[in-house]
Write a structure and sequence with these properties.
The protein has 275 residues and is an alpha/beta fold. It is built from 7 helices and 9 strands; from the N terminus they run αββββαββαβαβαβαα. The chain has one domain: 3-Layer(aba) Sandwich (Rossmann fold). The radius of gyration is 17 Å and the shape is globular. It starts with a helix and ends in a 6-residue tail after the last helix.
Length: 275
């Protein structure tokens, strides 16, 4: 289990690399969406492998570094490459950067993912604002001895996804002519894609999309008081819906197609994400 000193050690190392820069928004970018980190102005890069206590991203298209700088007028900390439990990490490892970001001064988190559409009304290429999520079986990211400096032992999840931010995102999407959904994200740890029977069960439970990331970070961000905006890109129809196998290639191709729209949406929403 991590101690407060572990998070502080990581934060102090990063502070030594970014001088007096202080980030306001943490951005965690999903599969195929890491290009946003390349848009940061006057970037300072910090490799995960050099940060004490940080784990290393092993997914091929995840670059494994933090990017600090200005984006759309905001001071941002961008994770170019996230961590996943399917890589062999514990949920606390996956969420470790969120607590470090809190110690660096971050007040909000914008988190994205590539996900499979479960809702029959959804189409590949749609964006979905996460209004809530379902998590059933994995180990909790803040289990163990509570770290009082970062949050209360017991905390509420009713208003996890900040309503104000969702309303802003919907307004900006409408102005840009971008179709955007709002729904429930189901967290499945992977690495295999789900079975058709599992997808049917998720739909019955009320899920609109499914993915293998996001929720450990979201829970931890909620625990330490961050405001949260979550956006899923529907890169495929979930198992059993399209009468074909789900592939990583399909996910990456659809993520690439959505780059322009995604960048426009994020660049218009970011300036409005106030603490």
């Amino acid at each position: 289990m991590y101690k407060f000193a572990d998070y502080a050690e990581s934060a102090n190392y990063i502070k030594s690399r970014i001088s007096d820069f202080r980030p306001d928004v943490l951005m965690i970018l999903g599969s195929g969406l890491g290009f946003m980190g390349d848009m940061v102005e006057n970037p300072v890069y910090v490799e995960y492998k050099n940060i004490p206590n940080f784990k290393i991203s092993t997914v091929p298209d995840h670059r494994g570094r933090l990017v600090f700088g200005k984006l759309a007028g905001q001071n941002v900390m961008v994770m170019q490459g996230r961590l996943h439990c399917y890589e062999g990490y514990e949920a606390a490892d996956v969420a470790f950067p969120v607590r470090v970001a809190k110690l660096l001064g971050v007040h909000s988190m914008l988190i994205t993912n590539a996900s499979g559409g479960i809702n029959f009304d959804y189409n590949v290429g749609d964006f979905m604002l996460i209004s809530d999520h379902i998590r059933l079986f994995d180990i909790h990211p803040v289990r163990g001895e509570n770290i009082e400096e970062l949050g209360d032992r017991f905390f509420d999840m009713t208003y996890t996804y900040t309503e104000e931010y969702r309303q802003i995102a919907k307004c900006k999407a409408e102005e840009l002519g971008i179709k955007i959904r709002e729904g429930v994200y189901f967290y499945a740890t992977g690495p295999q894609f789900e079975t058709p029977a599992e997808i049917k069960a998720m739909r019955i439970l009320g899920a609109d999309a499914v993915g293998m990331s996001t929720i450990p970070e979201v829970i931890t961000a909620r625990h330490c008081g961050l405001k949260i905006l979550g956006i899923s890109l529907i890169t495929n129809l979930a198992a059993g819906m399209a009468k074909k196998e789900v592939t990583v290639q399909e996910v990456n191709e659809e993520a690439e197609k959505a780059e322009t729209s995604f960048a426009k949406l994020v660049m218009t929403v970011l300036p409005e994400m106030k603490g």
